[in-house]
């Protein structure tokens, strides 16, 4: 065999002459590389979507709440908690809410049995909550000062609850809270940083005091909130969170705990990275198992092609040439298996992104790295069969063939 091109031609013919065997050889690299590319790409796409959400929502939303460990199971904030929070120089805006318990929410009386087993959050909220959350309304309006002063039975519902109750934007509807009819005046859009609000009902503080609250939630005529939502100055979130604990508490007996709402999204990203590591590890395991399969199939191929090897050895082909042929076949399997694996992985990312509504993200280095990894595994797996083929003597091939 005089030229390298002749050697490449023999290796290519060896692969295409046995198409089923070649397809079996390709499966390992394809599955392994596809799993790795899909795992990395999908988690990167999820992180890209997370970054987009954080950029839109901001990282400066802080939740301050009364800690139950100090204030009892139903702890409340001081009645002037909003004013105290505004004394912190880095606080830009504040909204207060009161989460209420054991209120049955139904779209109409006949549906009580269906919905009473499904708890729906009911909150008393002030007029500035949507602006602090920076969330618009799908339709209608938010609770205003007139609703508060007139003690009207007006309610705003989350977009998820609107879908559950089949409330259309702009439709005149009502909901029952413990059998009391409240007019739905608006639908709040999705709240990324507080998902529970998507299925919640919001009413005014005064109406909540009249219909649902006991003396434990009141301080004279004032309704005591149990949570504040605070917008902090950018890049001062940690300092603001610490200052809020002191400002709202002011040496009182109840502890105030704070939480940066964007941290929940970051924790979700960390769990995505852990899932990524697991799936990448599974992909590496798949490609290693595929490499073992390549070694097995190529070892069988050596026996099946022993006559061919013996004839070529008798014609003067050296052991190095025989070994190089099998190594070239392994390289080709790794190269084409890697390319197919990358293509399958990219397709999987595309499907996942389309279903989840994420931003398509693919690291450019994944493509060459996937192909190189498949080639390395294939070459390592092909070393033993190549060495075995190179050691065959012409007379021995007569016994094997």
List keywords for this structure.
two-stranded antiparallel ribbon, 2 domains, 15 helices, elongated, 401 residues, 16% strand, single chain
Structure report:
The protein has 401 residues and is of the alpha+beta class. The protein has 2 domains: 187 residues, no CATH class; 187 residues, no CATH class. Helices cover 56% and strands 16% of the residues. The strands form 2 sheets. Strands 1, 2, 3, 4, 5, 6, 7, 8, 9, 12 and 13 form an 11-stranded mixed β-sheet that branches. Strands 10-11 form a two-stranded antiparallel ribbon. Helix 1 packs across helix 13 and helix 13 runs antiparallel to helix 14.
How does the SSE layout of this entry go?
Blueprint: H1 4-16, H2 19-57, E1 61-66, H3 68-71, H4 81-86, E2 91-100, E3 105-106, H5 112-115, E4 122-125, H6 129-133, E5 137-140, H7 145-150, E6 154-158, H8 159-164, E7 173-177, E8 180-188, E9 201-203, H9 205-211, E10 218-219, E11 222-223, E12 227-232, H10 237-249, E13 256-260, H11 262-304, H12 306-314, H13 319-356, H14 366-391, H15 394-400
Parallel strand pairs: 4-9, 6-8
Antiparallel strand pairs: 1-12, 1-13, 2-4, 2-12, 3-7, 5-8, 6-9, 7-8, 10-11
Beta strand %: 15-25%
The shape, in one word, is: elongated
Class based on secondary structure composition and strand pairing: alpha+beta
Radius of gyration from CA coordinates: 34 Å
Quick gist of this model?
The protein is an alpha+beta fold. The chain has 2 domains: 4-55 and 266-400, no CATH class; 68-254, no CATH class.
